[in-house]
Amino acid sequence: MIEIRNLTRLYNGIAVVDDVSLTVKTGELVVLVGTSGSGKTTLLRMINRLIEPSSGQVLIEGADTATLPAHLLRRRIGYAIQGHGLFPHWTVAQNIATVPRLLGWPRPQIDARVDELLALFQLDPAQFRNRMPHRLSGGQAQRVGVARALAAKPDLLLMDEPFGALDPLIRAKAQADLRDIQRRLGTTLILVTHDMTEAVDLGDRIAVMDGGQLVQYAPPARILTDPATPFVRDLIGTGDRALRLLSLTPVSDVAAPGRAEGPPIPAEASLRDALAECLWSGRDALPVAGGGVITLDTLRALARPR
After folding, report:
1. C-beta separation of 195 from 174 below 8 A
2. FRET partner for 272 with CA separation of 20 to 30 A, picked from 14, 74, 77, 166?
3. Domain boundary residue among 218, 238, 258?
4. In this protein, which residues make up the domain named ABC transporter (predicted)?
Protein backbone atom coordinates (compact mmCIF):
# COMPACT_ATOMS: atom_id res chain seq x y z
CA MET A 1 0.00 0.00 0.00
CA ILE A 2 1.19 3.51 -0.88
CA GLU A 3 0.24 6.40 1.40
CA ILE A 4 0.84 9.98 0.30
CA ARG A 5 0.39 12.35 3.22
CA ASN A 6 0.13 16.14 2.79
CA LEU A 7 2.76 16.10 0.06
CA THR A 8 3.92 19.53 -1.14
CA ARG A 9 6.58 20.75 -3.53
CA LEU A 10 7.49 24.43 -3.70
CA TYR A 11 9.41 26.20 -6.45
CA ASN A 12 10.34 29.81 -5.65
CA GLY A 13 7.68 29.81 -2.95
CA ILE A 14 4.95 28.59 -5.31
CA ALA A 15 3.29 25.22 -4.66
CA VAL A 16 3.52 23.03 -7.76
CA VAL A 17 2.04 20.20 -5.68
CA ASP A 18 -0.09 21.52 -2.85
CA ASP A 19 -0.86 19.39 0.25
CA VAL A 20 -1.86 16.22 -1.63
CA SER A 21 -2.98 13.14 0.30
CA LEU A 22 -4.14 9.84 -1.19
CA THR A 23 -3.82 6.09 -0.67
CA VAL A 24 -3.15 3.46 -3.32
CA LYS A 25 -4.10 -0.06 -2.33
CA THR A 26 -1.86 -3.01 -3.12
CA GLY A 27 -2.52 -4.27 -6.65
CA GLU A 28 -4.41 -1.16 -7.77
CA LEU A 29 -3.83 0.76 -10.98
CA VAL A 30 -4.20 4.45 -10.21
CA VAL A 31 -4.04 7.12 -12.90
CA LEU A 32 -2.92 10.70 -12.23
CA VAL A 33 -4.58 12.95 -14.80
CA GLY A 34 -4.66 16.68 -15.45
CA THR A 35 -3.61 19.36 -17.88
CA SER A 36 -0.01 20.49 -18.38
CA GLY A 37 1.30 22.17 -15.23
CA SER A 38 -1.26 20.52 -12.95
CA GLY A 39 1.46 18.86 -10.85
CA LYS A 40 0.81 15.24 -11.80
CA THR A 41 4.34 14.41 -13.00
CA THR A 42 5.95 16.22 -10.04
CA LEU A 43 3.74 14.18 -7.70
CA LEU A 44 4.76 10.94 -9.42
CA ARG A 45 8.46 11.77 -9.22
CA MET A 46 8.25 12.58 -5.52
CA ILE A 47 7.16 8.98 -4.89
CA ASN A 48 10.59 7.65 -5.90
CA ARG A 49 12.37 10.88 -4.87
CA LEU A 50 13.51 11.91 -8.31
CA ILE A 51 12.09 15.16 -6.91
CA GLU A 52 12.40 15.72 -3.17
CA PRO A 53 9.23 16.90 -1.39
CA SER A 54 9.24 20.26 0.34
CA SER A 55 7.02 18.75 3.02
CA GLY A 56 4.82 15.74 3.62
CA GLN A 57 5.47 12.01 3.48
CA VAL A 58 5.37 9.04 1.12
CA LEU A 59 4.99 5.68 2.85
CA ILE A 60 5.36 2.35 1.05
CA GLU A 61 4.07 -0.56 3.11
CA GLY A 62 4.34 1.70 6.15
CA ALA A 63 7.99 2.70 5.57
CA ASP A 64 8.74 6.40 5.13
CA THR A 65 10.67 6.71 1.86
CA ALA A 66 12.61 9.68 3.26
CA THR A 67 14.42 7.27 5.59
CA LEU A 68 15.84 5.21 2.70
CA PRO A 69 18.85 6.08 0.50
CA ALA A 70 17.35 7.48 -2.70
CA HIS A 71 19.30 5.21 -5.08
CA LEU A 72 18.26 2.09 -3.18
CA LEU A 73 14.64 3.25 -3.10
CA ARG A 74 14.61 3.70 -6.90
CA ARG A 75 15.94 0.20 -7.45
CA ARG A 76 12.87 -1.12 -5.60
CA ILE A 77 10.42 0.89 -7.73
CA GLY A 78 9.95 0.30 -11.45
CA TYR A 79 9.89 3.45 -13.57
CA ALA A 80 8.88 3.74 -17.23
CA ILE A 81 8.73 6.96 -19.22
CA GLN A 82 7.35 8.20 -22.52
CA GLY A 83 9.56 7.16 -25.41
CA HIS A 84 10.78 4.11 -23.43
CA GLY A 85 14.27 5.58 -22.67
CA LEU A 86 16.20 2.49 -23.77
CA PHE A 87 19.99 2.67 -23.83
CA PRO A 88 20.72 2.76 -27.59
CA HIS A 89 24.04 0.88 -27.49
CA TRP A 90 22.76 -1.99 -25.35
CA THR A 91 20.83 -4.99 -26.58
CA VAL A 92 17.27 -5.65 -25.51
CA ALA A 93 18.49 -8.20 -22.96
CA GLN A 94 21.07 -5.78 -21.54
CA ASN A 95 18.43 -3.06 -21.21
CA ILE A 96 15.99 -5.32 -19.39
CA ALA A 97 18.77 -6.58 -17.09
CA THR A 98 19.79 -3.09 -15.93
CA VAL A 99 18.39 -3.15 -12.38
CA PRO A 100 18.91 -6.87 -11.63
CA ARG A 101 22.56 -6.37 -12.60
CA LEU A 102 22.86 -3.38 -10.24
CA LEU A 103 21.31 -5.50 -7.49
CA GLY A 104 23.91 -8.22 -8.02
CA TRP A 105 21.65 -10.98 -9.28
CA PRO A 106 23.51 -14.09 -10.53
CA ARG A 107 23.83 -14.22 -14.32
CA PRO A 108 21.64 -17.33 -14.77
CA GLN A 109 18.86 -15.67 -12.75
CA ILE A 110 19.13 -12.50 -14.86
CA ASP A 111 19.01 -14.46 -18.12
CA ALA A 112 15.97 -16.40 -16.96
CA ARG A 113 14.18 -13.21 -15.92
CA VAL A 114 14.91 -11.53 -19.26
CA ASP A 115 13.49 -14.47 -21.19
CA GLU A 116 10.47 -14.68 -18.86
CA LEU A 117 9.62 -11.01 -19.44
CA LEU A 118 10.16 -11.15 -23.19
CA ALA A 119 7.77 -14.10 -23.39
CA LEU A 120 5.27 -12.30 -21.15
CA PHE A 121 5.29 -9.32 -23.51
CA GLN A 122 4.91 -11.60 -26.54
CA LEU A 123 8.45 -10.99 -27.81
CA ASP A 124 10.18 -14.24 -28.74
CA PRO A 125 13.40 -14.35 -26.66
CA ALA A 126 15.32 -16.06 -29.45
CA GLN A 127 14.47 -13.21 -31.83
CA PHE A 128 14.61 -10.21 -29.50
CA ARG A 129 17.18 -10.95 -26.78
CA ASN A 130 20.14 -9.68 -28.82
CA ARG A 131 18.31 -7.10 -30.92
CA MET A 132 19.37 -3.46 -30.69
CA PRO A 133 16.77 -0.80 -29.79
CA HIS A 134 16.91 0.88 -33.22
CA ARG A 135 15.63 -2.35 -34.76
CA LEU A 136 12.44 -2.30 -32.65
CA SER A 137 9.10 -0.84 -33.67
CA GLY A 138 7.58 1.83 -31.41
CA GLY A 139 5.28 -0.69 -29.76
CA GLN A 140 8.07 -3.23 -29.27
CA ALA A 141 10.36 -0.60 -27.74
CA GLN A 142 7.61 0.46 -25.35
CA ARG A 143 7.09 -3.14 -24.23
CA VAL A 144 10.82 -3.56 -23.65
CA GLY A 145 10.81 -0.34 -21.60
CA VAL A 146 8.04 -1.68 -19.36
CA ALA A 147 9.77 -5.06 -19.14
CA ARG A 148 12.92 -3.28 -17.93
CA ALA A 149 10.88 -1.48 -15.26
CA LEU A 150 9.48 -4.82 -14.07
CA ALA A 151 12.74 -6.77 -14.25
CA ALA A 152 13.60 -6.70 -10.53
CA LYS A 153 10.02 -7.70 -9.59
CA PRO A 154 9.12 -4.36 -7.99
CA ASP A 155 5.99 -4.13 -5.88
CA LEU A 156 5.37 -0.66 -7.35
CA LEU A 157 5.61 0.53 -10.96
CA LEU A 158 5.51 4.23 -11.89
CA MET A 159 4.75 5.24 -15.49
CA ASP A 160 4.98 8.78 -16.87
CA GLU A 161 2.98 9.26 -20.11
CA PRO A 162 4.12 5.81 -21.30
CA PHE A 163 1.95 5.71 -24.43
CA GLY A 164 2.19 9.32 -25.56
CA ALA A 165 4.56 8.66 -28.47
CA LEU A 166 2.60 5.72 -29.94
CA ASP A 167 0.15 5.92 -32.80
CA PRO A 168 -3.52 5.23 -31.89
CA LEU A 169 -3.68 1.57 -32.96
CA ILE A 170 -0.43 0.58 -31.23
CA ARG A 171 -1.39 2.70 -28.22
CA ALA A 172 -4.71 0.86 -27.74
CA LYS A 173 -2.96 -2.52 -27.91
CA ALA A 174 -0.21 -1.39 -25.52
CA GLN A 175 -2.82 -0.19 -23.02
CA ALA A 176 -4.71 -3.49 -23.18
CA ASP A 177 -1.49 -5.48 -22.79
CA LEU A 178 -0.40 -3.40 -19.80
CA ARG A 179 -3.74 -3.84 -18.03
CA ASP A 180 -3.68 -7.59 -18.63
CA ILE A 181 -0.10 -7.99 -17.39
CA GLN A 182 -0.73 -5.74 -14.37
CA ARG A 183 -3.69 -7.88 -13.36
CA ARG A 184 -1.76 -11.11 -13.80
CA LEU A 185 1.27 -9.93 -11.83
CA GLY A 186 -0.67 -8.02 -9.17
CA THR A 187 1.73 -5.09 -9.45
CA THR A 188 0.67 -1.80 -7.86
CA LEU A 189 0.85 0.77 -10.67
CA ILE A 190 0.63 4.57 -10.73
CA LEU A 191 0.44 6.10 -14.20
CA VAL A 192 0.47 9.72 -15.36
CA THR A 193 -1.50 10.86 -18.41
CA HIS A 194 -3.20 13.99 -19.74
CA ASP A 195 -5.74 11.81 -21.59
CA MET A 196 -8.99 11.28 -19.67
CA THR A 197 -10.08 8.49 -22.03
CA GLU A 198 -6.88 6.61 -21.20
CA ALA A 199 -7.46 7.24 -17.49
CA VAL A 200 -10.99 5.84 -17.65
CA ASP A 201 -9.93 2.82 -19.70
CA LEU A 202 -7.02 1.88 -17.43
CA GLY A 203 -7.62 3.09 -13.91
CA ASP A 204 -9.14 1.37 -10.90
CA ARG A 205 -9.17 4.89 -9.48
CA ILE A 206 -8.40 8.27 -11.02
CA ALA A 207 -6.70 11.18 -9.25
CA VAL A 208 -7.54 14.47 -10.99
CA MET A 209 -4.97 17.23 -10.46
CA ASP A 210 -5.63 20.94 -11.04
CA GLY A 211 -3.25 23.75 -10.12
CA GLY A 212 -1.18 21.44 -7.92
CA GLN A 213 -4.18 20.25 -5.92
CA LEU A 214 -5.98 16.93 -5.88
CA VAL A 215 -9.55 17.88 -6.78
CA GLN A 216 -11.08 14.41 -7.06
CA TYR A 217 -9.96 10.85 -6.33
CA ALA A 218 -12.49 8.18 -7.20
CA PRO A 219 -13.28 5.19 -9.44
CA PRO A 220 -13.86 6.02 -13.12
CA ALA A 221 -17.64 5.57 -12.92
CA ARG A 222 -17.86 8.10 -10.09
CA ILE A 223 -15.68 10.58 -11.98
CA LEU A 224 -17.92 10.27 -15.06
CA THR A 225 -21.27 10.51 -13.27
CA ASP A 226 -20.41 12.87 -10.42
CA PRO A 227 -17.52 15.23 -11.29
CA ALA A 228 -16.46 17.09 -8.17
CA THR A 229 -15.62 20.44 -9.78
CA PRO A 230 -16.28 22.33 -13.02
CA PHE A 231 -12.67 21.55 -14.01
CA VAL A 232 -13.27 17.80 -13.71
CA ARG A 233 -16.51 18.14 -15.69
CA ASP A 234 -14.70 20.02 -18.44
CA LEU A 235 -11.85 17.50 -18.45
CA ILE A 236 -14.12 14.51 -19.01
CA GLY A 237 -16.33 16.36 -21.51
CA THR A 238 -19.95 15.50 -22.15
CA GLY A 239 -20.05 14.16 -25.70
CA ASP A 240 -19.25 10.49 -25.06
CA ARG A 241 -19.76 10.00 -21.33
CA ALA A 242 -22.40 7.32 -21.98
CA LEU A 243 -20.00 5.33 -24.15
CA ARG A 244 -17.23 5.69 -21.56
CA LEU A 245 -19.56 4.35 -18.88
CA LEU A 246 -20.37 1.34 -21.05
CA SER A 247 -16.66 0.69 -21.61
CA LEU A 248 -16.16 0.05 -17.87
CA THR A 249 -18.33 -3.08 -17.62
CA PRO A 250 -17.82 -6.49 -19.26
CA VAL A 251 -20.77 -8.14 -20.97
CA SER A 252 -20.59 -11.09 -18.55
CA ASP A 253 -21.59 -8.83 -15.64
CA VAL A 254 -25.04 -8.07 -17.05
CA ALA A 255 -25.82 -10.98 -19.38
CA ALA A 256 -29.33 -12.32 -18.75
CA PRO A 257 -30.80 -15.76 -19.44
CA GLY A 258 -32.11 -16.11 -22.96
CA ARG A 259 -31.25 -16.81 -26.57
CA ALA A 260 -30.42 -14.63 -29.55
CA GLU A 261 -29.50 -15.22 -33.18
CA GLY A 262 -26.11 -14.66 -34.78
CA PRO A 263 -22.47 -14.91 -33.71
CA PRO A 264 -21.89 -14.57 -29.95
CA ILE A 265 -19.96 -11.71 -28.39
CA PRO A 266 -17.08 -12.66 -26.03
CA ALA A 267 -18.03 -12.57 -22.36
CA GLU A 268 -15.05 -10.33 -21.60
CA ALA A 269 -16.06 -7.73 -24.22
CA SER A 270 -17.24 -4.40 -22.84
CA LEU A 271 -20.82 -3.15 -23.00
CA ARG A 272 -19.51 -0.49 -25.38
CA ASP A 273 -18.31 -3.28 -27.69
CA ALA A 274 -21.75 -4.90 -27.43
CA LEU A 275 -23.52 -1.66 -28.34
CA ALA A 276 -21.25 -1.20 -31.35
CA GLU A 277 -21.98 -4.76 -32.49
CA CYS A 278 -25.75 -4.29 -32.10
CA LEU A 279 -25.67 -1.09 -34.15
CA TRP A 280 -23.32 -2.50 -36.79
CA SER A 281 -25.21 -5.78 -37.27
CA GLY A 282 -28.70 -4.33 -36.82
CA ARG A 283 -29.50 -6.82 -34.05
CA ASP A 284 -31.57 -6.02 -30.95
CA ALA A 285 -29.90 -8.78 -28.91
CA LEU A 286 -26.61 -10.66 -28.90
CA PRO A 287 -25.81 -14.12 -27.58
CA VAL A 288 -22.95 -14.10 -25.09
CA ALA A 289 -20.20 -16.72 -25.34
CA GLY A 290 -20.64 -19.15 -22.49
CA GLY A 291 -24.36 -18.47 -22.14
CA GLY A 292 -26.87 -15.67 -21.78
CA VAL A 293 -27.88 -12.70 -23.88
CA ILE A 294 -27.36 -8.93 -23.91
CA THR A 295 -30.08 -6.72 -25.37
CA LEU A 296 -30.04 -3.28 -26.92
CA ASP A 297 -32.68 -2.13 -24.42
CA THR A 298 -30.38 -3.15 -21.55
CA LEU A 299 -27.48 -1.28 -23.10
CA ARG A 300 -29.57 1.88 -23.51
CA ALA A 301 -30.70 1.71 -19.89
CA LEU A 302 -27.15 1.24 -18.59
CA ALA A 303 -25.86 4.18 -20.65
CA ARG A 304 -28.21 6.64 -18.93
CA PRO A 305 -26.79 8.74 -16.07
CA ARG A 306 -27.43 7.18 -12.69
Report:
1. no
2. 166
3. 238
4. 2-236
